[in-house]
C-alpha cells in the first residue's frame, strides 16, 4: 500500500511538472527557432508520457494474486519500464534526424535571456524530480519509478548541454545542430541502461550471490548440518519472487521427517527474505553419501 500511494503521488507530480516545463521550453524553442530547445521540450513531454505508463504499471502491479495470475501482477510495472525505454529510443531517433537536417541546411540560432532562464529552471526542476524518483524508487523497490527518475536526469543533463551551447552559440553557426545530436546520444544511452536492466529481469536472471549465501547460512543455522542447497532457480514478479532449489537428505529418512525439514527451511527463508520458496529433496545413499536423483 505504501508503494502504491507513494508511486501514484510521484507519478502525478511528474506528469504535471513535465507538462508545465514542456510548454515553456517549447515556447522558447519556437521563439528562437532552436531545434535543440524544441528537442529538449519534447524530451520533457515524453517524461509525462512515461510517467503515465509508470502510473498504469503501479496500479496494475498493486493488484493481489488471483486464480488467473497466482504470482500477482508485479510484471506489469516491469512492462511499463520497458515502454519508457522504447519511447525514449523513438524520441532520440527523431531528434537525430532533426539535428542532421539543421546541420545540412547550415541554420544558425541566436538565443536570448529568456532561453537561458527557461533552461536553468528546467535543470533545477528536473534534477530535483530525478533525485526524488530514484530515491523513493529504491526505497520501495519500484524499478519503473527508478527508470522514470533516470529519464528526468537525462533531461536535466540535456538542458545542461544546451545551456553551455547558448553561451557559445553566437560564435558558431553549427552549435544548435550539434547540441541536438548530443541530446540524442544522451537519450540513447539512457534508453540502453533502462532496457538492459529491465529486459534482463524479464528474461530471467540467476540468483544473486549474496542471497544464495544467506540461504545456505539459514540452512546451517537452523539444522546444524549441511543440507547441500543447490540448483537455485529464481523467478521475479515485480516485488514478489519465487525461489526453487534442491537439498540433500539421507535416503533412509522418513517422508514425514524430510517434509518437516523442507517446510521449516522454506518458512525460515520466507520470514527473512519474504520470498516464496519450494524445496525439492534429493536422496543420499546412506553408505556412499552419493546424491540419488
UniProtKB/TrEMBL annotation:
Gene3D superfamilies: Cation efflux protein transmembrane domain (1.20.1510.10), Cation efflux protein, cytoplasmic domain (3.30.70.1350). SUPFAM superfamilies: Cation efflux protein cytoplasmic domain-like, Cation efflux protein transmembrane domain-like. Residues 12-203 form the Cation efflux protein transmembrane domain. Residues 213-283 form the Cation efflux protein cytoplasmic domain. NCBIfam families: CDF. It is found in: Membrane. The keyword Transmembrane applies. It comes from the Bacteria. Keywords: Membrane, Transmembrane, Transmembrane helix, Transport. The chain crosses the membrane at residues 12-35, 78-95, 115-135, 156-173. It is a multi-pass membrane protein. GO terms for cellular component: membrane. This is Cation diffusion facilitator family transporter. Belongs to the cation diffusion facilitator (CDF) transporter (TC 2.A.4) family. Its main location: membrane. One of its GO terms (molecular function) is monoatomic cation transmembrane transporter activity.
Amino acid at each position: 500500500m505504501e508503494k502504491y500511494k507513494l508511486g501514484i503521488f510521484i507519478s502525478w507530480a511528474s506528469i504535471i511538472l513535465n507538462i508545465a516545463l514542456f510548454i515553456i521550453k517549447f515556447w522558447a524553442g519556437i521563439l528562437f527557432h532552436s531545434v535543440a530547445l524544441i528537442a529538449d521540450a519534447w524530451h520533457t513531454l515524453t517524461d509525462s508520457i512515461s510517467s503515465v505508463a509508470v502510473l498504469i504499471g503501479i496500479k496494475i502491479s498493486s493488484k493481489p494474486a488471483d486464480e488467473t495470475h497466482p504470482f500477482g501482477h508485479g510484471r506489469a510495472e516491469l512492462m511499463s519500464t520497458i515502454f519508457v525505454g522504447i519511447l525514449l529510443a523513438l524520441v532520440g531517433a527523431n531528434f537525430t534526424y532533426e539535428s542532421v537536417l539543421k546541420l545540412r541546411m547550415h541554420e544558425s540560432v541566436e538565443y536570448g535571456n529568456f532561453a537561458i532562464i527557461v533552461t536553468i529552471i528546467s535543470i533545477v526542476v528536473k534534477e530535483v524530480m530525478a533525485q526524488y524518483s530514484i530515491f523513493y524508487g529504491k526505497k520501495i523497490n519500484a524499478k519503473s519509478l527508478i527508470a522514470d527518475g533516470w529519464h528526468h536526469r537525462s533531461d536535466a543533463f540535456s538542458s545542461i548541454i544546451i545551456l553551455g551551447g547558448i553561451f557559445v552559440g553566437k560564435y558558431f553557426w553549427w552549435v544548435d545542430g550539434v547540441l541536438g545530436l548530443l541530446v540524442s546520444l544522451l537519450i540513447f544511452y539512457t534508453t540502453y541502461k533502462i532496457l538492459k536492466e529491465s529486459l534482463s529481469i524479464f528474461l530471467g536472471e540467476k540468483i544473486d550471490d549474496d542471497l544464495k549465501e544467506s540461504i545456505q547460512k539459514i540452512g546451517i543455522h537452523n539444522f546444524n548440518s549441511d543440507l547441500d542447497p543447490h540448483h537455485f532457480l529464481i523467478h521475479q514478479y515485480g516485488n514478489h519472487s519465487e525461489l526453487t532449489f534442491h537439498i540433500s537428505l539421507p535416503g533412509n529418512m522418513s517422508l514425514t521427517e524430510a517434509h518437516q525439514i523442507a517446510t521449516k527451511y522454506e518458512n525460515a527463508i520466507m520470514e527473512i527474505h519474504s520470498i516464496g520458496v519450494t524445496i525439492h529433496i534429493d536422496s543420499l545413499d546412506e553408505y556412499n553419501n552419493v546424491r540419488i536423483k
